[in-house]
Amino acid sequence: MRQLIAGNWKMFGKLADVPAYASAVLAAPTHVDLLVCPPFTLLDRFAAALKGSQVALGGQDCHANPQGAHTGDIAAPMLAEVGARYVILGHSERRNDHGEANAVIRAKTEAAMAAGLIPIVCVGETEAEREAGEAMQVVRSQLQHSLPAGFAGVAAYEPVWAIGTGRTPTETDITAMHADIRAALLAQLGEAGAKIQILYGGSVKPGNAASLLALPEVGGALVGGASLKAEDFLAIANAAPRG
Ligand code: 13P
User: Fold this and answer.
1) Which residue among 123, 127, 158 is best mutated to probe the pocket of ligand 1, counting the most ligand atoms within 8 A of its Cβ?
2) Max CA-CA distance within the chain?
3) How many CA atoms does the CB half-sphere of 50 hold within 13 Å?
4) SS3 of residue 124 by DSSP
5) pTM of the complete model
6) Ligand 1 pocket test: which of 37, 61, 154, 163 has the largest number of ligand atoms within 8 Å of its C-beta?
7) Per-residue pLDDT reduced to its tens digit, 107-165
8) Please, where are the H alpha helices in the chain?
9) What is the DSSP string of 181-208?
């Protein structure tokens, strides 16, 4: 399966950044699926700049309802209308900053699927949970309670302590966690669980991408900081295994 290299811009970026970034990623390698998830304010401009290309667009969150009196929120059909194909859900920054619990993330995931979007559902343990030997248990519980029945989307393993820190788990730990996530997906979703791509996220950089992306059951990367520079993002995409 082609790897998915997804850039999560988080709360960074200006309209003026779009043209140069978009033209750079249009020269992306063709052996991977490339996805840019900018802030909502840049989606429309990006959609115009990337029109007709293979580079996909995504949102960073959506509401569980298709419309309504929810000040400050964005509905999944709104993302679809502006040209997004994906939406990141349950990122640890949403779980922490906005107190999003698994049940909320599950409802949002259902809303995303109903709107025809591909949800990327994030899971991952904190440093304290890893040190306590609870990482797998925490991730299993997040999967169990965040993924709806009939989930069709992407899973992203992002250890909270590896986000923006320059630290990553060992290759052995990533391999073990991705194998465990695969087993959990199969147990939860049956055969469909075999087809879910599992991304790794947390301090993915051009320098470590080749080794991280070559690990078994790693189906791509969810990239934060390094996705803001087109050159670094493309270097990560180029590091993905071919076929
Ligand atoms: P960094 O790549 O900056 O560590 O962020 C990872 C992340 O949170 C992507 O969603």
Assistant:
1) 158
2) 48
3) 28
4) coil
5) 0.98
6) 163
7) 999 999 999 999 999 999 999 999 999 999 999 999 999 999 999 999 999 999 999 99
8) 18-25, 40-50, 76-81, 92-97, 102-114, 127-131, 135-146, 171-189, 206-213, 230-239
9) HHHHHHHHHGGGGGS-EEEEESS--HHH
